[in-house]
Hints:
Blueprint: E1 2-4, E2 10-12, H1 17-26, H2 28-44, H3 47-53, H4 55-63, H5 76-103, H6 105-124, H7 129-157, H8 163-188, H9 196-202, H10 205-217, H11 222-228, H12 232-243, H13 249-263, H14 268-271, H15 278-292, H16 296-301, H17 303-309, H18 314-342, H19 345-370, H20 378-397, H21 399-409, H22 413-445, H23 448-467, H24 481-484, H25 490-493, H26 496-506
Antiparallel strand pairs: 1-2
Amino acid sequence: xxxTNRENGQYNARITWFLVLSCAVAAAGGLIFGYxxxxxxxxxxxxxFLKKFFPEVSKKLKEDSKTSNYCKFNSLLxxxxxxxxxxxxxxxxxxxxxxxxxxxxxxxxxxxxAAFLIGSAIGGAACNVFMLxxxxxxxxxxxxxxxxxxxxxxxxxxxxxxxxxxxxxxxFCIGFGVxxxxxxxxxxxxxxxxxxxxxSLAMAAAPASILTLGAIFxxxxxxxxxxxxxxxxxxxxxxxxxxxxxxxxxxxxxxxxASNISxxxxxxxxxxxxxxxxxxxxxxxAIPFCQQVTxxxxxxxxxxxxxxxxxxxxxxxxxxxxxxxxxxxGAIFLMSYIVDKNGRKILFILGGILMLVCQLLIGGIMAAKxxxxxxxxxxxxxxxxxxxxxxxxGFGLSWGPLGWLVTSEIxxxxxxxxxxxxxxxxxxxxxxxxxxxFLTMLCHFKAGIFFFFAGWLALMTVFVYLxxxxxxxxxxxxxxxxxxxxxxxxxxxxxxxxxxxxxxQDI
Length: 507
């Protein structure tokens, strides 16, 4: 395919096996993230795991009939088991920024995979809560490095016209990792002796091995090679390999120009706060914040606990979580086909509306039919399951993959690594807050928690409609034009001379 940039030059490109395999290996960074999301909630619902590490929760679940349905899993230690990973990821993502900028995307991916591999071994061998937490912290370091570098890698390697499809591979792997984790959790419950949770935690080493070993053979992106090594010839050879053509001069010139601007930025974390980067700085905070307050991630890694709350048994709750994970994967797969044709913005809006309706319906059913000590009938329980599936499908069509795609493509090269670190750090900060407080919120808000998330979804959809410009098919190193042409953001990024020119053209 010939991909034309906005100045009528040619970005010559074909979809090559070299490109596909490189992106597939890098996307395994999403697999380790998704696996952890799925596995932590699953093992937290296993009776033998709770009995060994969190006996007060196990006792409350089995023997306490006076505690509200919404409060039986309310334990600060249990939630810290989950949330400690995200605090470690927050710190790691900030540390990853200078490494990614100085040594390339490949180095951060390799470090992330290695840390996750060690953490999975410690978690599987855990004898006490201390070992569990240490393992979780190392998993967090791995995910912090991977989440900072993998989305950048995919966006920089992909041709502009297919960037949405390639970048969505990261989110697809997150969804696939969740589904895979739930399958393993279900199989682990059938192991006699009650030690199946060790298999669940230790199997995180499998996707980590794929990422770590694969990263050794990955090429770095042409953008990164030019930025940190200034080796234009090597960058040109890699660009020819990933594009499948010899004539890549127009794209290479754009990369060199962007790199020259990038080298003038000595302190990207300070420069990103400048007025001309204001829209990118705001988006690096607003998009991950909005992604978290959809409620998707707390529902994802607490899905088995949620289904046990409404009356499903241990294995039935895990089967339900598998169904939810499959729905999410299918939606992300569909999104990858249509995102480059229909654009990002319309999918954000449609997905937001779909999730909003589902949250309101789930909250209504839980409030009217479950109560503090009630029990949902099979019909209502399966209706909630169907609504949760539709909800995660809406997320898979919109805020899930697009939250990573858009933030990986809108940043200028000179601030890209810093902006992505801020994006990932904000993500982990609200991951931590959500994971640490969700069970307490569920206990106090009860069914109202679904209305809480629904309110945020309404605000997010309006935010996207008004303030997020469309980015489809635009080369990544020419992305600054979307801010210059936007009705609101142009007041920040245009200098005085450009503003006068625009006024003269309007007259």
